[in-house]
């Protein structure tokens, strides 16, 4: 039996919208690690970065991941940088060995840029040159997403429903 569905992938790859719908369809709880962090600290992610820096954020992100993985029947959308932490990758792998499935949502850099738009919500691409920041982070992270994913889907040219169908088919195939 699948324990949790864990969505990984770069910012704006669709983890939140796809995650919510998958949870609805499965009758599972939807959780977003960023949201859990915001609730826990009572402030926005942008504020956490500004006030305490990335290292602090990563520490809390790891704690939150460990805590949420204690439960099952959840769709968990993770922050785009979670895979950069070796300890987080270990937690994800442990969860997989207990039955979770890890799905990587991908998107082309220009699609990411368009989706992120002028949002101030993403501190790591609020740079003067957002495309440069996206390409740089993607170059560092792609191999990490690939290494840990059980299944990958490029969401760039798909409607949310199509992505959801694809993810659920993957889960069902594992059940058969
Ligand atoms: C981050 C992605 C964000 C959030 C934080 C850092 C990253 O989450 O965790 O701003 O390092 O890629 P989303 O992927 O949900 O945007």
Secondary structure layout:
Elements: E1 4-8, H1 15-26, E2 29-32, H2 33-41, H3 45-68, E3 74-77, H4 86-97, E4 101-106, H5 109-116, H6 130-148, E5 151-154, H7 160-175
Helix pairs in contact: 1-7, 2-3, 5-6
List the helices and strands in order. Answer: EHEHHEHEHHEH
Q: Count the beta strands.
A: 5
What average pLDDT do the residues reach?
94
Please give the count of helices: 7
Helix percent reads 55-70%
Q: Which CATH architecture is right?
A: 3-Layer(aba) Sandwich
Overview of this structure, please?
By secondary structure, the chain is of the alpha/beta class. It has one domain (4-167): P-loop containing nucleotide triphosphate hydrolases (Rossmann fold), CATH 3.40.50.300. The chain contains seven helices and five strands. Helix 1 (15-26) packs across helix 7 (160-175). The termini are close together. The mean pLDDT is 94. Residues 11, 15, 34, 45, 79-81, 122-124 line the site of shikimate-3-phosphate.
Question: Briefly, what is this?
Answer:
It is built from 7 helices and 5 strands, in the order βαβααβαβααβα. The chain has about 180 residues and is α/β, with parallel strands linked by helices.
List keywords for this structure.
5-stranded parallel sheet; alpha/beta; 5 strands; binds shikimate-3-phosphate; Rossmann fold; single chain; 176 residues
